[in-house]
């Protein structure tokens, strides 16, 4: 399970927004629907997810109705605050959303659309485990208004999937992709590199397999060892090796080269799309600091600079809503300095970069040093934007530290 919730101020029982909160109606609004169920817990995962034996007082079959109750509360709260807007993007994440019946996902989406409405051309994404996607599931989701399926491929190599505790069969990824395409859905596949025992040739095989699927979008994430996970314990006990930073860098460079040659463009450090239209607009909403409401246990929300997060366990979440109370556990309003640091962290990872004028005033002169080190594109800097080079993407965290410390 995920780590502890952040510290913050108590959240009001009715979920109401502060009276002095000023909401800009022109800022896009998104919805994240968290589905916290998994068949097994992957060793590297620290998301707020639960297997059937960990639910204790919550039932998967009741979840759609419970989440719909939070949607109803959100409509009331946002309407009272004058902040009600149609959704530009909707994202079902988890966990494994497709572990629930497709009809349950459709009912949750219908509840959200009824409450907020959908903007023209809205993007609606569902994350999926390859073993849970059939033509019938894909058609049900498409008929409900889903536009995009994000499939957790992770690797095409059996021993790498085993190291990650992934249970799907590699051949089922193609079956899932074909089912999604057959239903008219856009398709993204997610990959992870740097797993224990994964070689550069293993990673190359996974990239080739992903490209052979002819998807619209590919995400490639370096494996991060999160405290409290099974994988972290295995590494601490010396049972598996710590990921090799140099090997992960080689893997990233190989991914960028192969994807570029296949017609993909990077638009965020870990994300590539065939065209601007195929970029994940939901994730871009996060990176650009738009407003969103996160529904479900442990989900986080952000509206006009106010942040809040829900109680973690599905049973506690259901109990709050059954009592007509907000499931929010805490809230905070970061100060301007904290918001600036976050803007630099997020925007600098995008291909569009961040305006030099948006950097802390005392750190703008440091851009010249980053150019000299080959981390920032000089032509873009002359035009007033900080854009990472390939080397800069590999050292993105160091760039952010230089621009914010």
Q: What report would you give on this structure?
A:
With 405 residues, the protein is an alpha/beta fold. It is 37% helix and 19% strand. It starts with 28 loop residues before the first strand and ends with a helix. The mean pLDDT is 95.
Brief write-up:
By secondary structure, the chain is α/β, with parallel strands linked by helices.
Please name the defining characteristics of this protein.
single chain; alpha/beta; nine-stranded mixed beta sheet; three-stranded antiparallel beta sheet; 15 helices; 14 strands; 19% strand
List how many beta strands DSSP finds.
14
- Structural class of the helices, strands and pairings? alpha/beta
Order of helices and strands: EHEHEHEHHEHEHHEEHEEEHEHEHHEHH
In percent, how much strand structure appears in the residues? Answer: 15-25%
> Given the structure, what is the number of helices?
15
- Report low-confidence residues grouped into runs of 5 or more: none
**Large-scale geometry:** globular
For the record, give the distance between the C-alpha atoms at the N and C termini, rounded to a whole number: 32 Å
Gyration radius over CA:
21 Å
Largest sheet composition? 9 strands, mixed
